[in-house]
UniProtKB/TrEMBL annotation:
Record-level GO cellular component terms: plasma membrane
Species for this entry: Parendozoicomonas haliclonae
Locations listed in the record: Cell inner membrane; Cell membrane
Membrane-related topology note: Multi-pass membrane protein
Protein name per the record: Branched-chain amino acid transport system carrier protein
Gene: brnQ_2
Amino acid sequence: MGRGERIGIGLMVFAFFLGAGNLIFPPWAGQLSGENLWLSLTGFLLTDVGLSMLGIVAIALAGSPESLTRDIPGFLAPMFWIAAYVIIGPAFAVPRTSVVAFDVGIRPWLPGDEQSYLALYSIVFFAISAWLCIFPGRLITVVGRILTPVLLLVLLAIYIAMFLQPPVTFGPGLGPWANHAMLEGAVQGYQTMDTLGALAFGLVITSAVKNYGVTSRRELVRYTSEAAIIAGIALSVVYIGLFYLGGISRELIPDAANGGIILSYMVVYLLGDTGQAALTVVITLACLTTAVGVTTACGNYFHSRWPKISYRFWVIQISFLAMIVANAGLNTLLKLSVPVVLTIYPVAIMIISVELIRTWVVINREVVRASLLVVVIFSAVDGLYSTGLIDSWTFVRYIPLFENGLGWMLPGLSVLLAGWLFFLLKVRYALR
């Protein structure tokens, strides 16, 4: 593969991930973190960019998504994949594309009853999305090639206008962002759902590399890793600008309900109605392209699991359900997604981590299963706690990092490390 092909695949990966959540969570985190903005950004980059790109590499190492979950016993592995595709499909990620496109691109232009406008918009949005999924053609390719450069140009214009503003003194972090900004940023990185997206798109990315004649596993991992690095750098640059945008927005729009409102307001403030018009077109196309890509991936997966049910049926059902869910509104979707993401994300992190660690050391399958069981238990408690249902369970407050949504981390990693050391010593003593 030549350098141009490698860069092209890297930009393709970047386009996969530059969706709704990637544009709304950074400004929100930047505003709340205040003077701790750079700490918050670090946590966000670790869980969003870092984990997503490592997820792509892990699938290249494993060879397929199913191989990545080979340690999960029996029917639980398919359940994990079904849950992952439902979450990034009709439950949260796909509906969010419509809502973000409406909130950021359309709502600023509309008066009156926003809910009725959202209902109408979601019907049109998902009808177009389903049609493009069922009858893919040159439109997707053209939009994909034009969209990313235009979006980057709009973001560049925003950044230039932003950095030309007088210097701003960031205030203190708000709430937990005052003392745990890095951890809060990490949890916000969860909310983009990009790590689950990496697992869903990983096979597409490795297939793109193979299309250039790459056959050996070593070269596949190498070129996939290079593409992930290119995409990671591009995403990081975008996030740095959006975090800073959120940081300077606090005095201008202190009561914003979410990052979409911050982004829309700041674009008008910095670039006027022309900037808002450009953002409307670009955000709509970006979210539509993301919806088409994710819906197609979900449709293909469910069709592969149940071949007797047509791909078209799955696409229509996913689009219809996403349309229904979208009408809950962005704030409701963000609130509902927190416990679900806190529960399943740690499992994805562990299976990715284990696959990468196995490049250097041998880890027994029983050890992996034990650590995953511990992670599932603690992450489920994390998820329930975020809903307020177990607020009276005072014992959970003694779990390290629990109140930051990371209560699973030390128990899960401790079991993994202890199990690995146990079997390592057992083998060594058996050989003596």
